[in-house]
Amino acid sequence: LVPPYLTSSVFVKTVSVSTCLVYDLELSTVRHQPEGLEQLQAQTKFTKKELQSLYRGFKNECPSGLVDEETFKTIYSQFFPQGDATTYAHFLFNAFDLDRNGSIRFEDFVIGLSVLLRGSVTEKLNWAFNLYDINKDGYITKEEMLLIMKSIYDMMGRYTYPCVRDEAPSEHVEKFFQKMDRNRDGVVTIEEFIETCQKVS
């Protein structure tokens, strides 16, 4: 459904950027633990020690305990110097910003990271659907998918191999909907998305 060079590259870089935000920044000692560490342990697939380590890095990079969208875009864009990752980073930020308040808390970040790194196939597909469902109404439209695809192609840059044609994002969306929109109503539901992806994989 997604060209292999886009799927693997984008997913791996998304995960590596997410982990980089914390693992590569363990420069300070823990001053205090996040509240509800046991609760986070129950909500994620991380151990207490891993959560403490993630928290150290998060607080070191973001002393306020929050990551705003501009900071997120700046960090994410460093991993795609050949393209423009701004729009894709915006969509990704919204997928992590669970309560839609314009900032990512440690809890938001670590819950999303747990799904990306250690979630089941269904959990990862739910997370991906949430990313593609830009307005969060429970459906993926062609317009939403086109915005996502254009942002991925922009992020990969003009010098990808094989070369990307201008009409490639639109063609990709059409193929996506041919496979995913099973009842041909012009939108893709979470059920259609998960069922089709599981059959393909």
Give your account of this protein's structure.
- It contains 10 helices and 4 strands.
- It has 201 residues and is mainly alpha-helical.
- The chain has a single domain, classed as EF-hand (Recoverin, domain 1), CATH 1.10.238.10.
- The strands form 2 sheets. A two-stranded antiparallel sheet has the order 1-2. Strands 3-4 form a two-stranded antiparallel sheet.
- α4 (69-77) crosses α5 (86-96) and α8 (142-156) packs across α9.
Q: Can you say what the CATH homologous superfamily is?
A: EF-hand
CATH class: Mainly Alpha
Number of helices: 10
The unreliable regions are 1-12, 19-33
N-to-C SSE string, H for helix and E for strand = HHHEHHEHHEHHEH
Overall outline: globular
* Main beta sheet: 2 strands, antiparallel
- Helix/strand-derived class? mainly alpha
Radius of gyration: 18 Å
Q: Fill in the CATH topology.
A: Recoverin, domain 1
Largest sheet, order of strands side by side? 1-2
| Number of DSSP strand runs | 4
Beta-strand percent range: 5-15%
The protein's oligomeric status is single chain
CATH architecture label? Orthogonal Bundle
**Average pLDDT, all residues:** 83
Roughly what percent helix? 55-70%
Number of individual domains = 1
CA(first)-CA(last) distance: 10 Å
Question: Concise description?
Answer:
The chain has 201 residues and is mainly α. It contains ten helices and four strands.
Question: What order do the helices and strands come in, and which of them pair?
Answer:
Blueprint: H1 4-23, H2 37-43, H3 48-61, E1 66-68, H4 69-77, H5 86-96, E2 103-105, H6 106-118, H7 121-132, E3 139-141, H8 142-156, H9 168-180, E4 187-189, H10 190-200
Antiparallel strand pairs: 1-2, 3-4
Helix pairs in contact: 4-5, 5-7, 5-8, 7-10, 8-9
